[in-house]
Amino acid sequence: MNCGFCGKAFDEDSSQPACKQCPVGSGCGLVRCPHCGYENPGTPGWIAFLKRHLGKKTGPDAAASPLERPLRLPVVQPRV
Prior knowledge:
- By secondary structure, the chain is low in regular secondary structure.
- It has one helix at 45-54; strands at 30-32, 39-41.
- A hairpin with a 6-residue loop joins strand 1 (30-32) and strand 2 (39-41).
- The longest helix is centred in the middle third of the chain and has 10 residues, at 45-54.
- The model has no long low-confidence stretch (mean pLDDT 74).
């Protein structure tokens, strides 16, 4: 995950917990950046699900995630 304030990358699982004095508690879903302390919104569950399941492909494009691969469009010959 990249911080929305400082732009540095960090792992969402090893980030600092959000403020414990907040009346909302730990249910807000904010993730604190370990570099600058900015509280970023966490990754929604459905996006994490897609990343886990779409990222497990094998083949020539397995190194890049499906969202990072170039789009391959079919070549259409013009009709004369």
